[in-house]
């Protein structure tokens, strides 16, 4: 009897513990949020949604190869938790800048997730020289009207770089016939994708045999889209205040040489570091502007850094 009583008591304690944990999960308030971090880790096989798509173009998940490749990317990106949480935080800051530009050009909103896998929403620089959130090569930037040199590199300007990405994607869609292929071409180039389609006599990205990077490309985009659209479903827990926010700025027009950006920043109540954080396209401590081109410099509103 004592053994039975002890067993029942133990089961009762487990039940109470489960109810307590459930209560914490059901109400992630500031008071209990830290408690949720303790012993809150499990690894599960994931159920692949039946209706995954990119830009409205369905993913053929009944194909076992497509299913396995999608399963891999969903698992890898779900359980790379630190990176995933950073993507949620940065998306809150940068998606509001990217989304209206995509909409203006008629580019499906799903392409914002292409920027996520290209750079992690950072001003990354690839070994090949692709730069910025959209990973634009120097020649592509210049061909599309960006200034790219040691003094000014507008590939680091998120708004201008997004405009260039939109122009490239629209051209790819026109040449290749689908948004899925246009996304693949952002990685492998229009000519590269077109050549492989002709060599293999297929018309769909999902029927192409491609190299490792381009072969994973769409699956990674769709995985990030699915995860970032459904944080609770994939076990990401955060509050609104945990996310990063866009800092309001006002614009200052400059049409002459700036000899010292440290002194320039101080005129507006900020330091050089803050100036560069908001204007990473300024690549030097001074601005060479013999042509008297008009540049727009973002200055953060007062109260955010001091």
Automatic annotation (TrEMBL):
* CDD domains, sorted: MltD-like
TM helices/strands, residue ranges: none
Fetch the Pfam families from UniProt. SLT
Q: Which residues form a coiled coil?
A: none
- Superkingdom of this protein's organism: Bacteria
Name all Transglycosylase SLT domain ranges.
Answer: 104-201
Instruction: Output the SUPFAM superfamilies linked to this UniProt entry.
Output: Lysozyme-like (SSF53955)
> Family assignment?
Belongs to the transglycosylase Slt family.
| This protein's name | Murein transglycosylase
